[in-house]
Automatic annotation (TrEMBL):
PROSITE patterns: PIPLC_X_DOMAIN. GO terms for biological process: intracellular signal transduction; lipid catabolic process. It comes from the Eukaryota. It is an enzyme of class 3 (hydrolase). Keywords: Hydrolase, Lipid degradation, Lipid metabolism. Its EC number is 3.1.4.11. Transmembrane segments: none annotated. The lineage of its organism: Eukaryota, Metazoa, Spiralia, Gnathifera, Rotifera. It catalyses: a 1,2-diacyl-sn-glycero-3-phospho-(1D-myo-inositol-4,5-bisphosphate) + H2O = 1D-myo-inositol 1,4,5-trisphosphate + a 1,2-diacyl-sn-glycerol + H(+). This is Phosphoinositide phospholipase C. One of its GO terms (molecular function) is phosphatidylinositol-4,5-bisphosphate phospholipase C activity. Residues 118-204 form the Phosphatidylinositol-specific phospholipase C X domain.
Length: 204
């Protein structure tokens, strides 16, 4: 706001909040709260009962025992940074985001995500993984089409890491394309549906 080419503390916090506001999580919250369609990203909040309804469907082993008001409030106290919301037993959109990004909600089992569980003493070449760059391209890097079949081709060759360059399509759905080139895009959905039968045929 000062137009001095730098952010002060308040500007930085506002900028950070702008970058980290999650529209996808906003949509999820609206489905679990009363009168959700009337809320905005700034004033939406979830009470303990609504939070419990969400947790019932989360099916996460780490939080399966959170089923009483005390435990629910503990979650809110832990992840809600707004004092006013926290004292009222409410979880804001930012608090909801903080909760879902926490270790308790990690989709990877904690035994694998919090410690080294594999042998890391071998030479680097022993950990080689076949990877693919611009997987959606069969031929030219600057023209032609993005092709879902290109993914099947590399997967059946044993590739374990593929690349998606995703952008918003005109209809709001994700597309895959090589940006700033003449390569034509294809839908992200078409790729996922195409490769599903071959994902683990060669590489488990």
């Amino acid at each position: 706001k000062s137009r001095q080419g730098a952010l002060n503390q308040v500007d930085f916090v506002n900028f950070f909040n702008l970058l980290t506001h999650r529209k996808d999580l906003f949509g999820i919250m609206k489905t679990f709260i009363k009168n959700g369609s009337e809320k905005t990203m700034e004033n939406i909040s979830m009470n303990r009962n609504e939070l419990y309804s969400f947790l019932e469907q989360a099916e996460n082993e780490n939080i399966k025992n959170i089923d009483n008001p005390t435990e629910l409030q503990r979650l809110i106290d832990t992840y809600e940074l707004n004092n006013e919301f926290r004292e009222k037993g409410l979880l804001s959109l930012d608090g909801f985001r903080n909760m879902l990004l926490s270790r308790s909600f990690d989709i990877i089992e904690s035994v694998y995500s919090r410690q080294v569980y594999q042998d890391m003493t071998r030479p680097l070449c022993d950990y080689y993984i076949s990877t693919s760059h611009n997987t959606y391209l069969f031929y030219s890097q600057v023209s032609g089409n993005s092709d879902p079949e290109a993914y099947n081709h590399v997967l059946l060759m044993g590739c374990r890491a593929v690349e998606f360059d995703c952008y918003d399509g005109d209809d709001g759905k994700p597309i895959v394309k090589h940006a700033f080139t003449l390569v034509k895009s294809c839908s992200f959905e078409s790729i996922i549906r195409c490769i599903e039968p071959n994902l683990f045929k060669v590489s488990p």
